[in-house]
Amino acid sequence: MRKKTVVFIIIVFLMVPLCVYAGPPLEAVKTQVNKVLDVLRDSSLKGEAGKKVKREKIRNISGNMFDYTELSKRTLGQNWSKLNAGQQTEFLGLYKTLLEDAYADKIINYADEKVVFGKETTLSEKTAEVQTTIITKKADIPIYYRVIQKGADWKVYDVVIEGVSLVSNYRNQFKEILSNKTPDALLDTLRKKVGKA
Amino acid sequence: MKCNFHGNKTRRGIVKLTAYVLIMLSFIFIGYNRASAEESSPESQTVISVPQQETTPPIEQAKPAVIVEPQQKPAERQKAAAEPEIIEEEPTIQIADPIRPWNNAMYHFNDKLYFWVLKPASKGYSAVIPEDMRIAVSNFFENVTTPVRFVSSILQLKIEKAGNELLRFVYNSTAGVCGLADAAKADLGIPRQKEDLGQALGSYGIGHGFYIVWPFFGPSSLRDTVGLIGDAFLDPVSYVNPLEASVGITAYDEVNTVSLHIGDYEDLKKSAVEPYVSIRDAYLQYRKKKVEE
Fold first, then answer.
1. Pairwise CB contact (< 8 Å): A142 & B57
2. How far is B9 from chain A (nearest CA, A)?
3. pTM reported for the whole predicted model
4. Coil, helix or strand for A12?
């Protein structure tokens, strides 16, 4: 009898982590990516005008999908504190536009391809990585979303395409600029970049 | 007599070379003609993937997040004390870049090479050759370079990968009709993999040394350059005689590859604030992932 109880308790305890890790990050990413794909595959939006509407819609979705404050802080790292409050706000806005464009440009090419959602890996207490693969005729492209828990939600703070992390890539670029220029000059470069795009 | 024979051979070589140059030029010409018409067409932008590859996802990509307290100047300390801010920063990969002026020049050279020669040639080529055939050509070259991946896998003691390479080679050469179809992936579920000697050296713990950008070959490092030279010895195309034929085949392979990936480099450049740094970092991150796999 006692043995049975012990086994039962052990089983119950073994089940607990399963419940906790039943994949809210994966679900969150799945929902958002599917929303984006639905927009991309919307056949009522055609031509240049349709493309514009699609971009705008993707922009709105990614506003909920990404945590731009987290992204900005992680990208600038120690340099974040070099910016004053006003500069931080402006940087956030500019960087957001830059990332949205980059993400929309990449994902728009995959409109007709199949997306497979893979496993999720826990990175730390509040962060996880969700693996997705885009299957194309020419190659399979791994895209990993790194997410962070914000309240009840999981928000994307980094996208890793074929092993290349977007945040790390931009961090090195901004680091380079800030190593010999002022934060104002960086903002100016970004303004020009975003304005042109 | 002997002299005459020699002369004939040289002349034949020149004729071949001229024919080759003419074909390239005609591709470029067609490409330029189409470029203006195709600019707005979504078809001109194909799929993204800077380096062409098929991979299994890495098991552990998790980097420990390092919590870094921002360094403060005394003047800022008071303000910071009021609202302490902790910024998480994952360590980035760095590489020495002592020959940056050379690298920078080569980066610009390759950039122009892409936009002025490779891209128009690839566009002209893809206007003539349908995509399925271009994929077949890419499969063929992949099959031919099996020795590179086989030896690299063996050197890393990746026996399973080496076995897969052998199996892929045998199956694709027969069932895949001389490697034109990737039958091993379709029938046996063994996907393409990427292995090279640079990766093997990396797996022994050898560092990059420093960053080098080669004309034509693009981003590399001291270690990966040594790997590239080794790869060339394992690549059957290197042994094609005469030399111009070997170079021609390599150039054709390149044009074919680019034709399948038009738009990738443009996107990369468009999203970058500092393209040189962006490409250098992307190369490092990509190689790091390959070495860890």
1. yes
2. 40
3. 0.76
4. helix
User: pLDDT digit string (tens) for B206-259?
Assistant: 999 999 999 999 999 999 999 999 999 999 999 998 888 999 999 999 999 999
Which residue from B11, B16, B46 is spatially nearest to B249, judged by alpha carbons?
B16
Tokens standing for residue B50: 């800077």
**Is B96's Cβ below 8 Å from some Cβ in A?**
no
What residue type is assigned to position A180 of the chain?
A: N
Give the model's pLDDT for residue A82.
87
Cα distances from B191 to residues B54, B165, B289, in angstroms, run 6, 10, 18
How far is it, in rounded angstroms, from Cα A62 to Cα A35?
10
Tell me whether A196 touches chain B (CB under 8 Å). no
Check residue A99 and give its pLDDT: 87
Cβ pair B68:A78 closer than 8 A: yes
More confident residue, B69 or B111: B111
**Mean pLDDT on B2-10:** 54
- For residue A142, the distance in angstroms to the closest alpha carbon of chain B comes to 7
Across the A/B interface, how many CB contacts are shorter than 8 Å?
146
Helix axis angle for B2-38 and B119-128, nearest 10°, is 90
- Contact call for A129 and B61, based on CB within 8 A: yes
Domains and CATH numbers, chain A: 3-193 (3.10.450.710)
State how far the Cα of A91 lies from the Cα of A77, in Å rounded to an integer.
13
A144 CB within 8 Å of a chain B CB: yes
DSSP chain B: -HHHHHHHHHHHHHHHHHHHHHHHHHHHHHHHHHHHHHTT-GGGS----SS----PPPS----PPEEEPPP--HHHHHHHHHS---EEEPPPP--B-TTHHHHHHHHHHHHHIIIIIIHHHHHHHHHHS-HHHHHHHHHHHHHHTHHHHHHHHHHTT-HHHHHHHHHHHHHHHHTTTTTTS-HIIIII--------HHHHHHHTT----BEEEETTTEEEEHHHHHHHHHHHHH-GGGG-SSHHHHHHHHHHHHHHHHHHSTTHHHHHHHH-SSHHHHHHHHHHHHHHHHHH-
Chain B CB contacts of A189 under 8 Å are 273
- The Cα–Cα gap between B42 and A109 comes to 8
Nearest CA in chain A to B257: A138
A-chain residue closest to B135, CA distance = A138
Are A163 and B90 a contacting pair at CB < 8 A? no
Domain ranges across chain B: 99-292
The mean pLDDT value of chain A amounts to: 83
Looking at residue B192, its pLDDT comes to 86
Task: Specify whether the CB–CB gap between A62 and A91 falls below 8 A.
Answer: no
Cβ neighbours for A82, distance < 8 A, ≥ 6 positions apart: A76, A178, A183
